[in-house]
Amino acid sequence: MSRLLYRLGHFSGRHPWRVLGAWILIAVAAFALNSSIGGAANDTFTLPGAESQRAADALNDRFPSQSVYTSQVVLHSDEGLTTPEAKRAVADGVTALGGVPHAVGVSNPFDARGPTVSADGRTAFTTIAFDTDKIELPEYDAAHSATKVMRDAGIQVEYNGLLGYAKGEQEPGSELIGISVAIIVLAIAFGSLVAMSLPIAVALIGLLVGTSSIGILSGLMTVPSITTIVASMLGLGVGIDYALFILARHRQNLADGMPVPEAVGRANATAGLSVLFAGVTVVVAIAGLQVAGIPMLTTMGWGSALMVAIVMLAAVTLLPGLLGLAGRKVNSLRVPFVKQKPANDPRSKSARWAAKVVARPVRYGLVAAVLLGVLAAPVFALRIGFSDDGNAAPASTLRKSYDLLADGFGPGVNGPIQVSVETDGSADDQAALRDIGSALADDPGIAAVAPPALSPKGDLAVIVATPTTSPQDAATTQLVDRLRADVLPDAVQGHDVDPMVTGGTAFGVDISERLQDRMLLFIGAVIGLSFLVLMIVFRSVLVPLKAAAL
């Protein structure tokens, strides 16, 4: 393998324009294919086998107006929403919201059967149910146009749920921050603008091809939008890192007097080999998300693995071409006020530190083990969960709607719990619904319970309960577990019904439990496959064992 990498590096160093031309063709082809057969991201989320998913599917099929695919339009006015003018504007807005594409139901905040107006009359909300879990900008624009009559009346209008996410508000990109930091660090490390620019160029070109490739993948299968974000962060990090390994070795070879093609070839055969197998290990680790049992995470893993594979190949093919193009000017264009350091300095601080550690491995090993143990201790208090809209950017409509609802109705209104019950309208089923409602109301973690709502055919009932705590509060997770394990089974004793808990909060609990259940399997699969890869590379058992232990 190292001989192949040597030939590849040597050829690239001698014929850089051919290599650059090949990568330009690859980038153009990937971009063209993405434009022609690529698809848009699809954030459809499923959790096969989970109780919350079964209940959500039943609601979506038979009772879409109570679907978990909802969004709340939150209204607020310091002057109050109960004046005739405000009520008229709200009524007109609610009517208009009924015409939003994919909307199958819109509640009225002033409906006497279940009003959703705060005690002080200054905050209210209407809930829109959709027949799909994928709402995009056109639907948001339609909803925003429908609520214009409310805003014209001086009412603040904010959105959560599907409409809030469809608005597409984003915080500053982590990729831009990462590139900026990398430029500064590399400029200081190398003291040369040319040397600094090469890893950045390799990472960016790899990022371009990788992003286009994920777009092509989106045309063939369901790929969530988070895939591109995570893959870009990983691709940028490992792309710069891998290129840096090879570049550092190449500069050492040049300092030792080697011709440029020979320096590139040997750097590719040594550091490039490390890059190749490090990249394979990362790909294997990310692909290990296959065992997580969550389709969205699995797809995200494969998309990220594809990105890492592309930037890894760019490091061992494109970078050697760029090094050949730069020739001996790789250290030129010095950075002002930064002293260039020798490419190979056996008296550098890092070299002296490494020699000191190797001379006393037991002492430093024990200290490192203790330090790592201290840093790892918080894992015993780890609680896997999902953040709610209270963690969104303060200026976003998601955060504003969250704060308005929490202030007006209490924190639990941001994460209602839905209990679905199959029913045939018999007297026993009606009694079961009453017992379930009473049991929910008696639980200290429940702030309010709405009357049961029946589907149009009367074959499915839904009871909505509002917790006393926010969606990501540990007490809310305990509430969902308590309802499933104790409260609901006790309530339906003697009744032939099977209540199921769903809603966004219940989904979060089920996802967290699925991840916890699969965690050991995931770690075992990743370490096991990585062990096999390293054993092939080093033809040793001891080295992979040390890596697995670390």
Q: Which SSEs are present, and which pair or pack?
A:
Blueprint: H1 2-14, H2 16-37, H3 51-62, E1 70-76, H4 84-97, E2 103-106, E3 123-130, H5 137-146, H6 148-152, E4 156-159, H7 161-166, H8 174-190, H9 193-218, H10 226-255, H11 260-287, H12 295-326, H13 349-359, H14 361-376, H15 397-409, E5 417-422, H16 427-442, E6 446-449, E7 453-454, E8 460-467, H17 474-491, E9 500-502, H18 504-538, H19 542-549
Antiparallel strand pairs: 1-3, 1-4, 2-3, 5-8, 5-9, 6-8, 7-8
Helix pairs in contact: 1-2, 1-11, 1-12, 2-9, 2-12, 8-9, 8-10, 9-10, 9-12, 10-11, 10-12, 11-12, 11-18, 16-17, 18-19
Structural write-up:
This protein is α+β, with helices and mostly antiparallel strands and 550 residues long. The chain contains 19 helices and nine strands. It has helices at 2-14, 16-37, 51-62, 84-97, 137-146, 148-152, 161-166, 174-190, 193-218, 226-255, 260-287, 295-326, 349-359, 361-376, 397-409, 427-442, 474-491, 504-538, 542-549, and strands spanning 70-76, 103-106, 123-130, 156-159, 417-422, 446-449, 453-454, 460-467, 500-502. The strands form two sheets. Strands 5, 6, 7, 8 and 9 form a five-stranded antiparallel beta sheet that branches. A four-stranded antiparallel beta sheet has the order 2-3-1-4, sandwiched between helices. The two termini are 26 Å apart.
